[in-house]
Every structure is written in structure tokens, then in C-alpha cells.
Inverse folding.
């Protein structure tokens, strides 16, 4: 698989640090040290700038623009123009001079460089000693964090301490709205700016989507204020001070960013609104805000931590994952979703994919049901756009986009946007899964039913019948496995559609009043019933192995181990069409629906399909190994389970995919969590009853995690040979190691790895 | 099929005329009245310009440029940047003023307007009476033609005659190099220009492809020369004269265009070279050149005419077709090929497609074997590019492009360029067909063998074996039918590849010395042999109906007659993916290989396949109806044969496809010829012996055509009830109406339509 770890960061339990400056790694580090609070995100760049590969990124969830040009191929149903999350105002920018020398760690002499992200406070700290050309030494310590609860607030502290010689320091604190997206184009229009000792601000708008970001900032310092400057996209205050040995000075910057997705009032009003909050923030002060942040993260780790004893690297890895996932999304606003790279970069355009419902939703379901609900309400709020997308595809109902920010399809490659329907079936799956785990009937009535109905309408109209009208299924589709492009009866699509039909039929029988309200006709239900009964699921002769699509078994075979390492990634080295004409698969497809509806398949069936498909899977998707690890655990293949777990938690920390410089693999993080909780932890949530059936890798002393299931909070701790389920509050009923029990305090049971 | 004739032109035996000015039809007429001589082409635009929809087009075969931008999707094997034939110097441009009023037939008062193209002289004449604002009347007669033998020469005569009142006429004769391609961008760079009483010239170059066109012009007139003007892209001479009633004046423009595909010398040298020829042309004079043109076309009609008695419209239609095809290509230069729209417009980029070998080659084979040979030599000269294309697709050998001018793939849509291989198999078919009809062994040795070998290498490497290694064939391909996009075991591709393998094996057994020269190994031949034996040709259970591709029979069925007329063209009205997921086909696929290797299939088999596929064919390709007409004739379905013949000869004259404004469907013209000669004429050339087995539509009195078969010239005349084969020179051996005969003068036989 040609994936090799680059060990670089210090292994610590609740933080990640780099010691010493490594310019070649700079852009990867910027991704790793990203901060976010769902509302906004900022990469871990040097605030003062650096002469090295750098991606200065500041993003706001849901703030986006359209591409400047249409794609050249115009046919109905093909997206003409994409949209993407845009790089926005840089509110941490600073220019620092010591005796006239501009600080640039790539050019200046700096010692004891350290950059560290603390998962227990959410604070990113960068510190070093600057040996100036004038022969002085200054200790610089720069801290920043974003409030997780008052999400428009950002904090930055620049601390300077004289070590050797008297030095004159000049600092320009800058707000810069003229930021380039992909280093290429500023998508913002300047609206207003201003600077005074008391306040600097910049307001910009997006020309096409008509969104606004107002950034207001107050600066607290005892340094000398030398004046202000402002202009287009720009506001700046200048300070200076002198330091003798042992003397220190600090500059604290309080920022409030008001990101307005739908402009309703004047720039002035949006600015005054931000300034009001800015006053509160500055009055509260840096230290109290920091204390609140520590408290927030403390609470988080108390409820969501995964502890691994005996494996420091995975311990750090999984905590990094949990920290970053929580930063990206915790259910603050149902208008937000989870981009494939979170708020850490411009790659993947900030788009949300089907990853949200299939990989991320389980994490939130078992840790933060409100967030899980909000993710589904996001899809409900985009139902109109999904209906329009279905119309563009000459279909009925609602088709959810493969990649989107605003609910419209953002993917301009027709072969994905017009052929992949797992986002639509995933939304139905998400509703079903959410209802099953939470028992939230109100949600189903208020939102779920309608979404399921519209998706089912779409599926019925996009599906078709074979020539003899005996088999229903999907023609010219791409399943989750993107290496089989345009096939008929993709088993995943057919199976998921069948389950959607079944779920809708069951909802209709349960909620007659909703059938009436939405005008579900008997004829329609009869059509659904017939399609459901006749949905074709191709298998081998034994009926045990599902055929990924009709004809898959007959495809030319490739021994994937015969492919030279230098051929990876295949998309870069193989002719595009070559990828699509053999039995190699990129990621689980049959195994994927077997994961989602795990308890609907016998162990024998899962084993047969795992053993057939795993050797054909090249895992070019970062989501693939975790799914295989979960199956390997269930099927008693513990060595394989550990092998596939391999880089799940440290994919970005160790830059396995060689592209962490572009941002984090945020949705893969959720797969890492699933790998532990569903894989080793043996949790199953796809049935009426919770299942807990853990195993433990031989090299671990213990591991533990917490879940919130129908209001019961349980901690599951697994050691070699035994495990305990400890319940707080409401008793938990579950099938534990094959036995149904109700646990009200602590239940211990044996764990044996065969 | 939503195709309706717009009868507009006067029906005449050897010309096409419009009477009266019809501004709405202007751009269609410009296409119809196009002139060309293979070297260059010019649309039938008004030389003085017109305020109406117009496409002023002047093209040179093989003069092209690259697009200004890459396509956004970058994967290996996907063409980044296309190339296309560009609009070039306008050497007919003129500004005409009468008493200060600028001539513009759309704005001025003109009477008795007539535009006429004479197939017997190649002259386009436009005439009208101009009632000037100053109250005078002037007869204007403008003539133009291109030399068919001295192909760089163009002629234009502007004739004016006073009818009523004394009028002052001013004429600017212009060379204009600043022409827009697609009305959007001038792809030329100015190089030089000059104007004097004796000569005007403009030289331009292409910036990327480094080609040059030098246009030099000499003007003969007794009008007063008032001066010259030249500048960037521009040269102009001004003349004036006065006319009383009955007085006339004329301006004759002699142009030589030197289109330099590979610049080897200075602009000056290329210009002097052109001027040298210009002197000869002007000295010879307009009338002698015209006489030569008449002679050329006279010869052409003597050898290539098709006469139809009893159907004036098809008589005119087929002669228009033959005239335009001869203008487009007659084998003057093996560096030229036949663009889908010839030299009559910018649509289809001037690209040659597989149409050349499958539709056009038979026409040249039976009328002009030298041209047929040159078409194949064109492919030989592009073998290097085809090898590079194969490499881009991770394959061996040579892959011929789906659309090209310079030998490189010009199609940026990967789904066509990377999945359609009929151009490659068509080249091999062309070699085989050429050798069969001409018996030209030297060609096979000098060119054919190598091309066949390289294509066979490609096919072997692009093809693959099913999982159990029992079936060889092509995976992820698109056959000729473009409504089944990405399929396995497309029967056409598999069958054609099998025939390529067989042909190569037979060549190897015949030409051992060539096997040695090209290093054809025994192992390779064994591989080819095995692939050939195992090539999979899917059929129905009876084995009689070929399955267009594996799984085609199981596709959802559409009743094509249920599709509303308003849905056509489907590419404009259906979601792109919707076109590809049912059993509707755009054009013949199984029937296509049955046409190419007609005598390899039983009549019963052809009937079964015709009756299965015809009702599933929507004929969105202009090449489709003729193929069906040919089969209908063979299968005794004479009414259907006539129905499909319907618009074959008059597709552009009657603008059936509503897009003749963009240029003529030049390769469809060849299909119209095949429709008569192979269809009604019952000619078959795919066996060792020529077959002649004619029928005649009941509404025709008679029809006749000539063929050149292995050096024998035969005229076949078919009347109701009987037919005659008249041979000039070498006796002709053929299977005529089922009986093998050798005809040395005239052979008469009965024709009965069952």
C-alpha cells in the first residue's frame, strides 16, 4: 500500500508538539496545529509569516463562493460551476521587528523552537529565542485559542522577554482581508475598514453569494501605541517597546469575527453587533477565557475520552483525532456540516460528502446526540436543493449531492455527481440509525419521514427494471467503490435502496397521519413494495458472496500485490480508464453495506465476503482500512485487525498519505474512532438492542471508551482477559458478549481472543 | 425522428440555386454554397459582408491551432488541450459603395437576387440589381471559383452594369488576416502585409503550431486605381468608376494562397514563391482558368456521376453530395484527411474521425483508388502519434485518435477518447479493404503491414481476459453506438479486433520477410492466435442475435416511439446519464460490423439482427439511416430501404438536422453514396469477388453509377425489371445477381424486387 509513517512529533498523552524548526515539514505542521470551533478554523501558521511552504488559511463554516468559470462540458445534469469554502480574513497577522530586523523564523536565527497544541486547553503555543542581528536575544511566546462556547471569539497573546541586551521591538497588529484562495485569487470584496487605538476592523463581502465577514479587534498592551493605518481590506495598529534583560511585554488581541451567511442588515449594524461582543470579551479578559476553555476541554475528555494503556502512539493518535473532530463539529449550528478536511484547508473545497452520515454520525450518536440530530437537520434544510438536483437528473423526489456546502451539488465531474447515490441512501440510513439509537420519534415525524419519502421517490424513479421486468435495480451507477465507474446493479446501491424502501414502508404503516399529510398514495406504496421485493442482489452460485455489481465476478483479475509501489497513487500514475477495467477495488462496497446493516448478515456470510473482497481492495481511500479492521475483529482475525488499524489514528500525525500539508483527513478521524469502538470494542448499534462484544489487541494493556445510548452513559473498559461496563445514571440494557443484561452500575465479563 | 425537410433550393440537375434573398436562411446557404479544392475551402458568404447571421469562413486543410486553455480534469490519458482547424485569411473581402452608399444586401434595396452553384464548372455566382438610395440601378454579378488542379489559386470576378442613371462606384479590394474563429478570437499573428497597384499581400503565422499562410493578390480592371493601404493583418486597393446605362466594368482578383504547414523558410521566400505562381495565374487569365475548371468537372462527372431518372430531388441531392465530397477530398495530398464538416465550417474542429475509413474510403476505393491510398498513407504518417497515444493509455502499439487533425488525439472528453477504439480497428479494416479491392500488394508491404502490426499490439494490450481466462475481449469501452458508454465485451470492438488479429496472422504467414523485419515473435503470434480464438462474441441463446455488449439484453427497455418529439436532440434535453441506461441505441453497432464484413454473415443472421436492433435505434447519428437502408435493401424490405434513404442525399440541402448553418455533414455525404451503390446497387466489396446484386425503388425509372474495380471501369445501370453492366477496358469478373460472370462489354440481367 506504499504508506509509510513519518514519525516527527513528540509522543505525549494529551498534546502534540514539534521541537525545533523544520521548514520542509512546515505546511504539514500548519495542518496538524489547526484550531477550530466549528464556527471558524485557522491553520497553525506563524502569525508573523514565514519564508517557507505555507498555507495561511482562515475559514468560516458555510462562507463560500462560486468558481469564476464554468466547466467546458455542458449537458443536462452536469454541474456547470462549483462552489467552495473560501479563505477569509486573517485576524492573527502581525509584523514584528527587533532593532529593525523583521521576524521570519525561516531567515532569522531562532533557537529552542517549539510549537505545541494542548488538547486539555485548546491552546496552540509557539515559542523560541530570537538571536537578533543586532546581537540581542529575545524570548518569544505566542499563544492562541478559539472559544468553544462563544464561537465568534478568538484570542491571541504575543509575549516577549528580553534575555540578552537591550532591544527595541516594533509590532504591527494587522487585520488582512485581502487573502488569496489556493494562493491564486482573493474572492472577497472590500467593504469597510478602520483603525484606532481602541479598535481595528475590516469588513468584506463575497460578490456572488453575498455573505459578509466583519472582523473586529481590540488590543491590550502596555506598549507604546504609535498610530493606526487602514485601507482597502486592511487595518493595523503599531506598537513599540524596549526590553532589557528580564523585562517582558505582551500584546493581547481579542477578536470577534461576525460571519454573516445571509446578509440582513448593514455593515455598520453587523459591525456594531460584533463590537458589542468584543467589549464583553475584552472585559472578561484572556485568563478567564482560557480558564473557560480548559473547563470545556476537561468536560469533553471526561465524557468522550478513549484511553489506551500500553500504546502511547495510538493513545496520542486517537486523542488528536477526537480533539480535531470536536473542533470541527460538535453540533453548535444545524447549518454546519463536516467538510472532508474540516476547517483545516482548501482541498476538497470544504465540501461535505456521504462520509457525514456513514462515518461521522455514529461517533456523534454515541457521544453527542444533539450534534447527531443537527447533522440530520442540516440535510432536512437542504431538501429543496436535493429536489432540484433530482429534477436536473430527470428524476422525482430528492437526490442529495455527492459534495456540497450549500446543499447544491458542488462536484463538476459528472461521473461522480450523476452516478453516485450513496449520499441519498446515507441520509435515510442516518435517519433510521438515529431513530434506532435515540428513540427520538419526534424527529422522525418532524423531519425524518419527509426526507425518507423524498429519497425513496428519487430511488424509485432513478432505478429501473430489467428487460423482462423481473429485477429492479440501478443502471449506470457508481457505488462507494470508485474503481468501478459505470455499472449496473451495484450491490451496495441496490441493497441500500431496498432498505430505504423497507424503512419507508414501515414508517408508513406506523405513521398513517404522515402518509396522509404528504399524500403517499396506495399506488406509490405498491410500486415501492414491488421494487423492494424485486430488488436484485447479485451473488455467486452459492448465494453467499454478493457480487459487487452484475458482471463483477467475470472481470479481469489483478493481483494487487503485483502492482509496483511506484504506481501509487494510481490516479496519478495510471491511465484514467485503466483504473476501471479489472476487479481491483479502491474501498469497501459490499463490505460497506454489511457494516452499516451488520446484524442482518450471518458471520459465515461476512467471512465469505471479507475473504473474497479484502484481497481485491487497494485501500486508496483513507476510509477503507478501518472498515476492514472492524470486520477482521468480528471475524476473529486479530492480527489483521491490528494491521488495518495501523495508521487509522495517526494518518495525519505521521502523514501516511503524504498530503497532510493540504489539511487534515477529518472524516477519516471518525473512521479511526469507529475502528476502536465498533472494531475492538465490538459495539453494534444497527439492531433493536445494543451489542457489546469486545476484543483487545495483545499489545495493549487496556483501553476504555464511553458511550451515550438512549440516555445511559456507560464506560467500557477492556483489559486482557476481562472487561467491565460501568453505567452512570439510567441503567443500560445490552447484549454483552452474547448475553442480554441490564447494567445499573458495574458489570464484569470475560474477554478472550481465540 | 423529428426530422423534417425544409425545401428551399430550386431543384435542378447539376446545380443548386436560391432565388430571392432570405436572410433567415443566410448561414445555411453559406454552407451549401461552400467552395473547396481539398487544399482550401471558403464558405459561400457575401464578399461585401452582410448584416445577417453569417459565418465568414476560410479554411486551409491542416492549418490549425491549439485551444488557449487546458481542460480542468487532469488524469493520465486525458487530453489536456485540443487543437482545431482555424478560420484564416479572408481573400475575397470587398467593400462596395454606389454614390456613397455601402452595399449590404440586408440593408440596401436589391431585386432579382440569385445565388447559384454550378456543379459542372465549380463556379458560385451571385447576382442582383441594386436600386441605390441615389435612385440608380446597377446590376451586380459576382463570381468565384477555386482551381481544382492548381490548388493554391482562387478566382473572383466582380461585374457591374449600369441599368438606370449615372452612378459612381467605389470598390475596396481587401485581404484581411484578422479573422475571428467561432466569432470569438483571432488565432493568427500578423507577420507582414503590403499593398501597391500591382500586388496586395498579407502574411500571418500561428503562434503555437508555427504555420504560415501568405495570401497574395493581383487585381485586373480598367477602373481607376485610387491608391493602396496596408497595416496589421490588412491590405487594400481602392478603385472607382462611373457607369451610365448599358456601361459595365469588372474587377478580376487573382489570389494565390500559400499555406505552409511546416515553416522552412522566411516569409519573404514563401511570399515570392506565391507571387511567382500569381504571375502565371494572372497571365493565364480568368477565362482560361474557368475553362480548365469546366473541363475538370466534366471529367469528374464522366467517371463518377450517379444518374437517377424519375426522382429529380434525389438526383440533385446525390450530385450535390458528390460535388462537395470531391471538393473536400480527392487525394491531392496524403497529409490531408476528411473533416466531419469538410472545409465548410468550424464545428467538429475540422477533425477527421473513424468515418474516413468506414464511410468515405469505399467511395474512393471504387472511384479514385489513388485518393483511397492517400487516405491510408495519412494514417501511416501519423503512426508515431498513435504510438504515443497508446503509451498515454498505458498500452503497447498504436492507438489511432477518435478525432484529430495532426495525428494527436483532439478529443478532450475522456469517455470518447479513452474508450472508443473503432478508429484503430478501422485503419486495419481500411488496409484490408483497400488491398482486397485494389490488389495493391506493394502498399501492404510498404505501409499496411506495419500499421496492422502496431494496432494489433495495441488491441492485445488493451484487451483483457475474463476472471477464468477463457474469454478475451475489451472491458470499459464504448463501441460505435455512443448511447452505451462504458461497457464490457462490446460486440463490435471484440469482433473487429478478432478480424484484425486474423488479418495480421494471415499477413504474417504471407510476408515472412516482414515478420522478420519488424521482429514479430512467435510468442506474440501465439498470443494473438489465442486471443483471436477466445475473443468473446456474446449472443442470445439461439446464437443468432449478437448481444451489443455483455448484459445489453438485460437492460431496461425503452419504446423509442414513446419519446416525445420535443425531447430531441436527446443530448440537449435529457440528463446526460439518462441517455446511457437503457437499451436505446444511437446508431448501428452490431449492424455496423455486419456491414463491414457483410459476406461473413448469413442472410438469416442479418435479418434477425436487423429486426432486433432497428426498433431500438434512434438514428441520432446522421450516419445511421443509410446503414439501415443498405440492410433493408439486402433483406428485401424495399419500402423501409426507401424510407431510410429518405434524407440521405438531401440532409444539408433540406437542412434536416437544423444545423447546416454550421457547415455540411461531409462524411454523411459518403454514407449517401454508399446508400445508393451498396444499398440499391447491391455492390459488395468485402469478399474475394465483387458482388453486384441491385434492386430499384419502384418510384425510380432508372439509376446508374460507375465503379473502378481492380482497374476495370464498369457502369451499372438499373431499370425497372432489368439492369446492365457495361465495362470499358479491362474485363470485369463479378458475381452478378448470384451468378459469376466475366463482362468484357455489356451484360444484361433481370432485376426483380420480390
Amino acid at each position: 500500500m506504499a504508506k509509510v509513517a513519518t514519525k516527527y512529533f513528540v509522543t505525549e498523552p494529551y498534546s502534540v508538539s514539534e521541537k525545533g524548526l523544520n521548514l520542509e515539514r512546515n505546511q504539514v505542521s500548519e495542518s496538524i496545529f489547526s484550531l477550530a470551533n466549528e464556527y471558524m478554523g485557522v491553520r497553525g501558521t506563524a502569525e508573523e509569516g514565514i519564508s517557507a511552504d505555507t498555507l495561511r488559511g482562515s475559514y468560516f463554516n458555510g462562507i463560500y463562493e462560486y468558481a469564476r468559470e464554468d466547466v467546458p462540458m455542458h449537458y443536462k445534469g452536469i454541474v456547470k460551476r462549483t462552489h467552495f469554502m473560501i479563505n477569509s480574513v486573517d485576524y492573527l497577522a502581525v509584523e514584528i521587528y527587533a532593532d529593525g530586523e523583521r521576524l521570519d523564523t525561516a531567515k532569522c536565527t531562532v533557537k529552542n523552537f517549539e510549537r505545541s497544541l494542548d488538547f486539555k486547553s485548546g491552546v496552540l503555543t509557539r515559542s523560541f529565542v530570537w538571536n537578533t542581528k543586532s546581537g540581542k536575544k529575545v524570548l518569544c511566546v505566542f499563544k492562541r485559542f478559539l472559544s468553544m462556547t462563544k464561537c465568534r471569539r478568538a484570542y491571541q497573546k504575543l509575549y516577549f522577554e528580553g534575555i540578552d541586551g537591550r532591544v527595541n521591538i516594533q509590532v504591527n497588529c494587522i487585520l488582512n482581508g485581502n487573502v488569496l484562495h489556493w494562493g491564486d485569487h482573493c474572492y472577497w470584496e472590500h467593504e469597510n475598514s478602520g483603525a484606532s487605538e481602541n479598535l481595528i476592523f475590516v469588513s468584506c463581502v463575497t460578490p456572488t453569494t453575498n455573505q459578509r465577514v466583519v472582523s473586529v479587534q481590540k488590543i491590550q498592551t502596555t506598549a507604546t501605541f504609535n498610530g493606526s493605518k487602514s485601507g482597502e481590506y486592511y487595518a493595523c495598529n503599531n506598537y513599540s517597546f524596549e526590553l532589557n534583560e528580564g523585562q517582558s511585554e505582551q500584546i493581547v488581541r481579542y477578536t470577534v469575527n461576525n460571519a454573516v451567511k445571509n446578509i440582513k442588515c448593514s455593515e455598520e449594524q453587523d459591525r456594531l453587533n460584533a463590537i458589542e461582543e468584543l467589549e464583553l470579551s475584552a472585559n472578561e479578559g484572556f485568563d478567564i477565557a482560557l480558564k473557560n476553555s480548559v473547563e470545556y476541554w476537561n468536560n469533553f475528555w471526561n465524557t468522550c475520552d478513549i484511553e489506551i494503556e500500553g500504546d502511547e502512539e495510538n493513545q496520542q493518535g486517537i486523542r488528536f483525532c477526537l480533539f480535531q473532530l470536536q473542533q470541527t463539529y460538535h453540533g453548535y449550528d444545524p447549518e454546519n456540516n463536516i467538510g472532508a478536511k474540516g476547517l483545516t484547508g482548501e482541498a476538497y473545497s470544504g465540501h461535505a460528502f456521504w462520509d457525514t452520515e456513514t462515518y461521522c454520525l455514529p461517533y456523534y450518536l454515541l457521544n453527542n446526540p444533539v450534534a447527531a440530530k443537527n447533522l440530520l437537520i442540516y440535510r432536512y434544510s437542504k431538501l429543496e436543493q436535493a429536489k432540484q438536483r433530482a429534477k436536473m437528473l430527470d428524476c422525482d423526489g430528492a437526490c442529495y449531492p455527492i459534495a456540497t456546502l450549500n446543499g447544491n451539488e458542488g462536484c463538476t465531474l459528472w461521473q461522480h455527481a450523476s452516478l453516485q447515490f450513496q449520499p441519498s441512501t446515507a441520509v435515510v440510513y442516518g435517519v433510521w440509525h438515529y431513530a434506532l439509537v435515540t428513540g427520538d420519534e419526534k424527529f422522525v415525524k418532524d423531519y425524518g419521514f419527509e426526507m425518507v419519502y423524498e429519497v425513496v421517490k428519487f430511488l424509485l424513479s432513478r432505478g429501473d427494471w430489467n428487460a423482462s421486468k423481473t429485477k429492479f435495480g440501478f443502471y449506470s451507477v457508481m457505488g462507494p467503490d470508485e474503481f468501478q465507474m459505470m455499472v449496473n446493479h451495484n450491490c451496495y446501491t441496490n441493497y441500500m435502496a431496498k432498505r430505504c424502501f423497507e424503512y419507508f414502508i414501515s414508517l408508513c404503516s406506523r405513521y398513517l397521519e404522515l402518509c396522509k399529510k404528504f399524500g403517499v398514495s396506495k399506488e406509490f406504496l405498491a410500486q415501492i413494495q414491488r421494487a423492494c421485493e424485486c430488488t436484485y442482489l447479485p451473488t455467486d452460485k452459492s448465494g453467499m458472496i454478493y457480487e459487487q455489481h452484475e458482471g463483477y465476478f467475470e472481470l479481469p483479475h489483478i493481483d494487487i500485490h503485483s502492482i509496483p509501489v511506484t504506481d501509487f497513487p494510481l490516479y496519478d500514475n495510471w491511465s484514467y480508464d485503466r483504473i476501471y477495467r479489472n476487479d481491483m477495488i479502491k474501498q469497501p462496497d459490499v463490505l460497506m453495506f454489511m457494516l452499516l446493516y451488520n446484524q442482518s448478515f450471518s458471520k459465515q456470510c461476512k467471512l465469505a465476503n471479507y475473504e473474497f473482497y479484502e484481497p481485491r481492495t487497494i485501500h486508496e481511500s483513507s476510509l477503507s482500512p478501518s472498515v476492514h479492521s472492524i470486520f477482521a475483529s468480528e471475524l476473529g482475525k486479530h492480527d489483521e485487525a491490528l494491521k488495518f488499524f495501523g495508521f487509522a489514528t495517526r494518518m495525519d500525525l505521521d502523514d501516511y498519505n503524504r498530503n497532510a500539508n493540504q489539511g487534515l483527513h477529518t472524516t477519516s478521524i471518525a473512521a479511526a474512532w469507529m475502528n476502536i469502538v465498533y472494531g475492538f470494542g465490538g459495539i453494534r448499534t444497527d439492531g433493536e438492542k445494543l451489542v457489546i462484544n469486545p476484543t483487545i489487541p495483545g499489545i495493549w494493556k487496556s483501553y476504555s471508551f464511553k458511550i451515550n445510548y438512549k440516555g445511559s452513559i456507560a464506560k467500557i473498559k477492556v483489559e486482557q482477559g476481562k472487561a467491565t461496563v460501568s453505567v452512570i445514571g439510567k441503567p443500560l440494557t445490552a447484549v454483552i458478549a452474547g448475553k442480554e443484561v441490564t447494567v445499573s452500575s458495574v458489570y464484569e465479563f470475560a474477554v478472550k481472543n481465540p
Remarks:
- The longest strand of chain A covers residues 248-260.
- Chain A touches chain B through 47 residues (CB under 8 Å).
- Chain A has a mean pLDDT of 96.
